[in-house]
Amino acid sequence: MATSSGGTASGFWRSGVGRWLGSTKNLVGSGLGVAALALEFTVGLGPFWPIVVVASYGVGALLAPRDRVSLKLGLGDDATAPQLQEQLRLLEASLHGEAGRLDADAEAAVTKILGTLGDIVARWDDLAAAPEQRHTVQAMITDYLPTSLQTYLNLPRTFALSTRVAGKKTAHDELMDQLGILDTESGKIRDAVYSKEVDSLADQSRFLRQKFATSSLDLDTAPPPADDKPAPPPA
């Protein structure tokens, strides 16, 4: 019972309401609202004190810095299928929270990738004979996808959509490239799982490790577009 209650509580704090209640903006706004309420009780703020209290909260919430987005559960290299499903649920829930700031094209891409990865995890035992591909899928779920999303979401929106560093792509362009790679490669692995041909995917696993060794959303070190396509598998 204790485990269930803890899981419920943890799930609440990952929900949109829970994240807002624990956010810096809410805490600062609440602090200013309480301070205004204390002034009303001590010196009086006049007949419009409720407006002053609400306005104090609003000013605090508006001026406080936005919390940095974190979408990783910190799962180890030996994550189980239920743990991977939990990470996927967190990423899916983020589409209605932090990732609500994603444009429609990115949100659609993330939704598709999550569905594909969910299909693979549902057949997790079928990857037992292909440890390299199993590790690749795990890295997609616990590292590549959440890192790409949280790196993008922690950038100022105007910068992410419009700023090009040294004539390179915008952060949004880089995110879409990364999501396109994850969509393609996860689709290949899912198809291989269903057709039981996972041994043919060694090149894709190696390509993903090289591509996501560092986040290409760092526009100063982003690789050229030509590197976005994996080498074809050997005949």
| H and E order | HHHHHHHHHH
> Helix/strand-derived class?
mainly alpha
Percent helix, as a range, is 55-70%
Number of domains: 2
Number of strands: 0
Separation of termini? 54 Å
- Average per-residue pLDDT, rounded, comes to 74
Low-confidence spans: 1-6, 220-230
Radius of gyration: 22 Å
The description of the largest β-sheet is: none
Helix count equals 10
Strand content is: under 5%
Spatial shape = elongated
Verbal overview:
- The structure is a single chain.
- With 235 residues, this protein is an all-alpha fold.
- The protein has two domains: 62 residues, no CATH class; 148 residues, no CATH class.
- Helix content is 64%, strand content 0%.
- The chain contains ten helices and no strands.
- The radius of gyration is 22 Å and the shape is elongated.
- The N terminus is likely disordered.
Short structural description:
By secondary structure, the chain is an all-alpha fold.
Features:
0% strand, 235 residues, 10 helices, mainly alpha
Topology:
Blueprint: H1 2-14, H2 16-21, H3 24-42, H4 49-63, H5 81-94, H6 104-122, H7 131-153, H8 157-162, H9 171-195, H10 202-211
Helix pairs in contact: 3-4, 5-6, 5-7, 6-7, 6-9, 7-9
